[in-house]
Structures are given as structure tokens and as C-alpha cells.
Amino acid sequence: MADNENGSSSSQPNSLLLKPTNLECKNLYDYLKTRSSSTLEKLYNHPTICLAVYRELPELARQYVIRILFVEQPVPQAVVASWGSQAFSKEHIYVSKVLSELSVWQEAAIPGGLLGWILSVTFKKNLKIALLGGGKPWSMSSALEVDSKARDVSFLDAYSLERWECVLHYMVGSQQQEGISADAVRILLHAGLMKRDEEDGSPVITRQGFQFLLLDRQAQVWHFLLQYLDTVEQRGLSLVECLTFLFQLSFSTLGKDYSTEGMSSGLLIFLQHLREFGLVYQRKRKAGRFYPTRLALNITCSQGPEMRILEEDTPKGYIIVETNYRVYAYTDSNLQVALIGLFTELMYRFPNLVVGVITRDSIRQALKGGITADQVIGYLKQHAHPQMLQGEAKHPLPPTVVDQIKLWEIERNRLTYSEGVLYSQFLSQADFNILKEYAQSNGHLIWCNKEKRTLIINKSAHDDVKKFWKRYSKGN
After folding, report:
1. pTM exceeds 0.85, yes or no
2. Residue 8 backbone zone (phi > 0: left; psi -120 to 50: alpha; other: beta)
3. Please, which pLDDT band fits residue 208 given cuts at 50, 70 and 90?
4. Alpha-carbon distance 93 to 332, whole Å?
5. Per-residue model confidence as pLDDT tens digits over 422-435
6. For the segment 229-247, what is each residue's pLDDT rounded down to a tens digit?
7. Are 351 and 329 in contact (CB under 8 A)?
8. 28 with 52: CB under 8 angstroms?
9. Burial level of 43, CB count in 10 A (0-12/13-18/19+)?
10. Residue 157 · residue 77 · CB < 8 Å
């Protein structure tokens, strides 16, 4: 018997062609666990970061942290595990892994040979400061004279919306492309949201870019900033310094001005980039004060019911979908029109109304661009007109339209691709049957052909199947 790791769809070039990459939106945990322990140690020197990390931990993990926050010696791991029911042992294992990967706690030996958990000294110290008070004041909280040209919340909301939509306008290729710098374009290219056209070299939107456009605004800003942070060290800036400032902004007060006094030159550069993206407002580059906007507030928070209440700048619903697949969008925004045009065929355009229709071809075009049926449905639900939410209907969209969009996606995805390893050239039918039964009983078998004595095994199970075959061969 011979196995061929380049057979089937397991060859790397083919698998990349057959399975295009989708947009991966990391939450705070997914991002921080990729940082080195030394970087996390530097980050935990700041109470705001410790509070933000604690706030985003799973509920069980927060319970563990609070229970051992004031304990100065390692707590036996068996004792920590006993704090929860055995029915939730999987959850306990998961949160233990999360706390370890974030360097919030470490294993420590206890006299008698037992292992225990103890919180990181730095994290413990600064979380206490965040929860109980104390520590040094933020550099940006220096006292300022009353601003003679103070900006209110409504101005800051309008400013942040305008600046952020400049980036989105550029991505969809609408005519309102002014105001985006070459630096922002480089970030879009680095993030894979856009790529250079092969013919003229101009930036064009990618599959991930289409998916990015249909995210809610908070998720868009967070993903964009993560991509920016990947490039800060190439710009000569400190990742720890930029992250710390970003976390401090997330706990700032909307409508309050803050001082730039004492900021390093690197932070001032970072502030200008945040200004361009709409996270802060500053009248002039050298102005000694700035105003955080709503985009910067609670930026690391997971989307939840409490978060939605805070997002007062979320656009009101403006889309009506009828059972005949007609879409009515009450908007005069070129950006919103362009987004609707991603998955509908636009029919009429009036000063404050756009009419389109959802068709098989328009959905297939969206699917081809990388947008999924769930993303289309989610976007329509998120921006559903208030009238569609009235009455006893549990769903704002007609079920026939939702089902048909999903059916069109299933129709296009009739073929699925799996990475596998080809097994062939068996010396006997008995050998083939033995290996086939083993792979099938363990759920490793993707495909087989009895006549040609050929198997395709899941690539992740290749080592396990090889070990079984060696044991079987030795036994015979």
C-alpha cells in the first residue's frame, strides 16, 4: 500500500484555489493570545488594559480571577476546578486555557507536589488599581482651559461618520473618494480588503473586502485597527504604547476634551492617524487638545445587548423588503446605495429612495464576490425599516425571501472540498477492507473506490491511520 500526500485536494496550491480565504475578525482574546508573553507583561503595566482584558473574559474566567485576586499564594488546580459543577468541566478547561494564553495566571508548584494557579503579579496589581482606585493619572487627563470652540456630541458623531465613510466610499469605488490618504490605502492593501489590479495597478476590492463592508461599524473599526497595529512597528512606533493609548481612549468620556501634553512623538503620529479614521477630532495638528468620538469608545467590547444601547449613532433602519423580492431603501447616501447594489439589481433612483430587486443573478454575483447568504440576510435585518419591525412578526424579513437567498447559495455550493491523503496500491482486497473499515468507523474516510482499491483519508487523521496500518502490518 502506498499513500500519496499530494493526492486528492491535499496539495497546497490546489486547496488555496478551491477554498478562498474568508475574512477573519478577531476579538480581543484572539488578538492578544498571538502576542508574546513579554509584550503582554508590558501591556499589563497599565490598569486600563487589565480592566479591558478582564471585562472581555468569559464569565467563568472572571469569577476565577475575582476569587483569587486577593490570594497571595497559589490555589490548587483541583480546588479551582471544584468551584464549578462537573457538568461544566469543558467550560472550566476552556477558561483555564484562555487565562493561560493571555498570561493572566500561571501554573505554580505547591508543597506536596500539587500544581496550583496564581495570578500574574503585574496583572493582579494593576487590576486592583483599576477596580479600587489609585495609580498614576493618564497623561492625557491634564487640566485644560475651557475650550472656546467646544464641540458637542452631535458634531463629533457627524465628524466620525463622515471620516469613516470616506474609507468605505473608497472601497466600493463610489465617486466620493476624497479625504483618504495613501497611508490608509496601504492599510487596506495590507489587510487584504483591497488588492492591486493586474492591469493598471489601481486598488480594487477583494472577497474579504466585500465581507468587511457588511459588518457593523464597531466590528469594521476594530478589524481595521488590528490591521493597522500589525504595521506600527514598521512605522517606527511602539505597539505597546499605541495599544495602551487605544485602550485609554476606549474608557474616555464622549464630548470631553483631552490634552496632548506629555505625549511622545510616536503617540502624536498615532493620534493623527486616529484623527484621519474618525476616532478622534482635533481642529489642527498642533492643537493641544482632542475629542474622542463614539468610534473610539468601548471599541474592544463584544457586541451584546448592552453595547447596542450605547451605539446611539447607529443609522436608523431604512430598508423595506417585500415578498416579491423588491427592496426599497429610503436613503440619499451614495455609500448605502453602493452597498445595496452589491446584492440587488438597482432599478430606480430618486432623491431619497432607491428601488432594487433581489434576483438569482444578483445573489450569485454577491456570492462570487465572497459575500455569504447569512451576511446579506444579516445586513437586511440590521437595517430593516421600523415599519417592518411592527406587529407580531418575529422576523423583519419575508420568510420566502430569506429561504430563497439561502437556496441560491446552496445551489451554488453543491460541491464541497476537503483536504485529504490518497491511499492506493493495496496488495490485497483484505488489506483494503481492513483500512477502510478502520477509517470509516472513526469518521476519517472521505471517499473510497472498491474496484480500484483507493481511499482518501482526512488529512488531519493521516498520522493516526498510518500508525494503525503499521501496527496491523507488524501483526501480520
Report:
1. no
2. left
3. confident
4. 51
5. 988 888 888 898 88
6. 888 888 888 888 888 888 8
7. no
8. yes
9. buried
10. no
